[in-house]
Design goal:
11 helices; five-stranded parallel sheet
Length: about 500
């Protein structure tokens, strides 16, 4: 599909352009395509107050109701109220380990659809296609699914005869599910892959009136024997940012970060393992960070008998450490990593001042692993040595085969002026999905500083698929409200045109 060919709308202006084709953009497209959620006649929600509110207007879809009213009194594991509402309706009492049926009924009403395009660099599914491998997702399978197609059933049909503990899928299965979802829901006509947005700005409308958004970029086209990049431009009344967070890896800001043995992706280690450049006889791998990606890296290294040094700034008992927030029953492998971090600490009877002269022993309950809590990297050296420093200023020098710095990532908003910094909660600081997300109206997800610019997913702090769907509901609801208002205004103008002015007496 050629984005430059979208001239079938008044003045060549699209109602909506979505930037990003991961689960956020896919769910957004689903709601904009005319799939409308209603309270099912047989539907019952375990929250009696919410059930009573829904029964007040059973003939109206959620997109036509007062979301702020429905959100009142609800609590959940998201700071965004509409995210809590929609999650509660799609997965009632899911936080208690229950698999209650949703009280929602989805009706396809194409007359309610809003024309739109979804732009993405790769296949629908976004960053999930880069997460190949056999690791399990953090979330339960039903938490990863999108409305209208149960991931659990879809995965069961695709698997041969494998039973996954706790009903969790692999990233490869999730990526395939999202791509298949777009096809099964007949959304593919709205998706343009191979596109990179390079500029987003306001421009005057050709025919006059309020300014519109100009979306410019490059589209990668593949022809036999060659690939070309062609520029494109789109004009849109509204733009939805759904770009995710995995674009720009966070860096440490220390000497030697650009040395060839320092990497910022788990997949670099997987590649080294596949090529035979890393094995049990190699010097240890240094893993920097204490998030889930770091944990996955440690698990894979442990599985391949590769020795690991693990450095992180927090204490193992820090309540903000993600491992201290995950239920042990649901996430046994991450609990195992936390046990390793706790039981195999470097100072437990081990020399730490000059380990290059006295190598750290890889023994104990988890041979091949040593953790360095409350340590930070001071420098990387060309001879593949890494200098760590603890809270007391004591330094440790480690000989490594490769270093993996896995401390998070920043979104790539280079297509916005100043990388979108003016849109954040703290406009003087760079955008960070954890520390400085974009500031939006909590019930519409519209930017508080740029009318007509909507934001969802990790850019507003939603890093779990189960909660990013609330952003799609809020945005679709606000766009539907504006459309109804415009239609009523047009009808009113038509009525006024037929009124004969009264004569002066």
């Amino acid at each position: 599909m050629d984005p430059n060919g979208q001239e079938t709308f008044p003045g060549g202006v699209l109602p909506v352009v979505v930037i990003g084709n991961g689960p956020s953009g896919i769910c957004m497209s689903y709601l904009l395509s005319g799939y409308m959620p209603y309270l099912s006649p047989e539907g019952t929600h375990p929250n009696a107050v919410l059930q009573a509110k829904l029964e007040q207007n059973p003939h109206l879809s959620l997109l036509e109701q007062d979301l702020e009213y429905l959100c009142e009194g609800l609590e959940g594991r998201s700071s965004n109220p509409v995210a809590v509402l929609f999650d509660s309706l799609l997965l009632p009492d899911s936080d208690f380990g229950l698999d209650c049926p949703s009280p929602l009924l989805w009706r396809y009403q194409p007359e309610q659809a809003t024309p739109h395009l979804v732009l993405g660099r790769g296949l629908p599914g976004g960053a999930w296609h880069a997460m190949e491998g056999s690791m399990l997702t953090l979330s339960l399978a039903r938490w990863m699914e999108l409305p209208g197609l149960k991931l659990k059933d879809w995965v069961r049909d695709k698997r041969s005869s494998r039973n996954v503990r706790n009903d969790r899928a692999t990233p490869a299965e999730v990526a395939s599910y999202y791509q298949s979802y777009v096809t099964q829901m007949d959304l593919q006509k709205n998706f343009i892959s191979g596109t990179m947005v390079t500029s987003l700005c306001r421009v005057p409308r050709k025919e006059g009136g309020a300014p519109v958004w100009m979306v410019q970029g490059l589209q990668r086209l593949s022809e036999p024997g060659e690939e070309t990049e062609c520029p494109f431009s789109l004009r849109a009344e509204n733009v939805v940012l759904a770009t995710g967070t995995h674009d720009v890896p966070a860096r440490l800001g220390v000497d030697g970060e650009d040395l060839p043995f320092v990497h910022y992706s788990f997949w670099e280690m997987e590649s080294a393992l596949m090529k035979g450049n890393l094995d049990r006889n190699s010097d240890p791998v240094l893993v920097v960070g204490a998030g889930l990606t770091a944990a996955d890296t440690i698990l894979v290294a442990h599985h391949h008998s590769v020795n690991v040094y693990h450095a992180f700034r927090r204490s193992v008992s820090d309540p903000d450490l993600i491992f201290n927030q995950l239920p042990k029953v649901l996430y046994p492998e991450y609990h195992k990593v936390h046990q390793m971090m706790t039981q195999q600490q470097c100072w437990r009877g081990m020399p730490v001042t000059h380990p290059e002269n006295a190598p750290l022993p890889f023994s104990g309950s988890y041979p091949g692993y040593v953790s360095f809590p409350k340590h930070h990297v001071v420098a990387f050296k060309p001879d593949k040595k890494c200098v760590l420093e603890d809270a007391e200023g004591r330094q440790t020098i480690l000989q490594v085969s490769m270093a993996l710095v896995l401390i998070g990532a920043y979104p790539n908003l280079s297509f916005l002026p100043d990388d979108g910094q003016h849109l954040g909660l703290s406009p003087q600081d760079p955008i960070s999905c954890r520390r400085n997300p974009l500031e939006v109206n909590p019930y519409t997800y519209e930017s508080v500083r740029e009318p007509g610019l909507y934001v969802m997913g990790p850019l507003v702090g939603e890093n779990f698929v189960r909660f990013l769907k609330g952003g799609a509901l809020a945005i679709a609801s606000d766009l539907a409200r504006r459309r109804r208002s415009a239609e009523q205004s047009t009808d009113g103008d038509k009525e006024c045109a037929h009124i004969t002015p009264a004569c002066d007496s």
